[in-house]
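Subject: design request, 339 residues
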């Protein structure tokens, strides 16, 4: 077994699984991705035991002693500051107000860096682009709309309280057909997440299916719950269905519109789009709609250089890390901080 070199582990705590990755001192992945159950609803102690299991499996898969792991990067699916979780999210009650980072560090005898899952995924996308050294902003439509910003050199911008880049709760100037602002899960109205997310997709689909023009649509010929119908909408869009395409076009345009305002603040240069849409066959079309929304809102200088009109000042790319992005990001962060 290898025992002299230092390795760094990234642990991504999700609602159902922990994904874990190991990298060496050169930031190269060692062994395969490991997945174990997270047990977050059973409390942080139960999850800590799962994290130790993941570390054992990482070490075995890489052919090293566990003692060769020199640092940990940890991400959690909840807001946190300085290692302390602020909100329950999908966690058990005992997570909230607890110094998770400090307790885990003491338990493992290792330094631990901790952030939220959106930040972790952004760092992962940065780490996987080895030739990219400037900043990167990630937006990931999923159940909600998450985001993260990585500064040049690979450090994530978290904000003083760990609450930066809550991009899903930036308001956008769009209204429903009746002039109302859609409700958001945060309790406000008109947030971008109320337009660009799985929850928004369900609401929009229900509103559209109630219109006479879609009375004969296949999704109106079933009594399935709206959540099930929304789940099928991606397949319909992949086959060019008019209703599905119109809904995704609206989401893409509004996402691009939002990005234009975020770029005006952060000027990241590279915007990465994550989430499940990165895996769809119509993703190139969806990216076109994002770029249309961006062009509608962005100043020309944020699109092309005033000195060279062929040089884009803001580039768009799809995420490449998939489900492993957050774990990779945390392993990379641990290596940067603790090497």
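Subject: RE: design request

Done. Sequence follows.
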């Amino acid at each position: 077994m290898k025992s002299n070199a230092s390795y760094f582990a990234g642990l991504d705590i999700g609602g159902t699984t922990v994904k874990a990755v190991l990298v060496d001192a050169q930031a190269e992945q060692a062994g395969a991705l490991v997945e174990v159950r997270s047990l977050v609803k059973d409390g942080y102690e139960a999850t800590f035991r799962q994290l130790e299991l993941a570390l054992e499996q990482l070490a075995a898969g890489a052919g090293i002693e566990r003692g060769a792991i020199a640092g940990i990067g940890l991400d959690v699916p909840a807001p946190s500051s300085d290692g302390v979780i602020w909100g329950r999210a999908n966690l058990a009650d005992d997570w909230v107000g607890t110094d998770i980072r400090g307790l885990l560090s003491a338990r493992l005898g290792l330094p631990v860096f901790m952030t939220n899952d959106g930040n972790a995924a952004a760092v992962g996308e940065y780490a996987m682009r080895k030739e990219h050294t400037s900043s990167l902003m990630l937006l990931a439509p999923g159940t909600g709309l998450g985001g993260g910003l990585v500064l040049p050199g690979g450090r994530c911008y978290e904000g003083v309280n760990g609450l930066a880049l809550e991009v899903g709760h930036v308001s956008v100037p769009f209204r429903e057909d009746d002039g109302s602002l859609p409700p958001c899960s945060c309790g406000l109205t008109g947030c971008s997440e109320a337009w660009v997310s799985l929850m928004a997709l369900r609401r929009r689909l229900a509103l559209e299916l109630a219109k006479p023009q879609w009375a004969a649509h296949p999704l109106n010929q079933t009594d399935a719950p709206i959540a099930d119908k929304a789940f099928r909408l991606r397949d319909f869009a992949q086959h060019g269905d008019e209703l599905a395409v119109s809904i995704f076009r609206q989401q893409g345009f509004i996402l691009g519109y939002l990005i234009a305002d975020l770029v005006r603040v952060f000027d990241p240069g590279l915007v990465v789009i994550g989430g499940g849409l990165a895996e769809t066959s119509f993703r190139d079309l969806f990216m076109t709609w994002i770029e249309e929304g961006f062009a509608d809102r962005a100043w020309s200088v944020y699109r092309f250089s005033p000195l060279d009109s062929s040089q884009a000042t803001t580039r768009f790319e799809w995420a490449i890390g998939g489900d492993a992005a957050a774990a990779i990001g945390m392993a990379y962060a641990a290596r940067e901080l603790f090497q």
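Residues 136-319 form a domain with the Nucleotidyltransferase; domain 5 fold (CATH 3.30.420.40).
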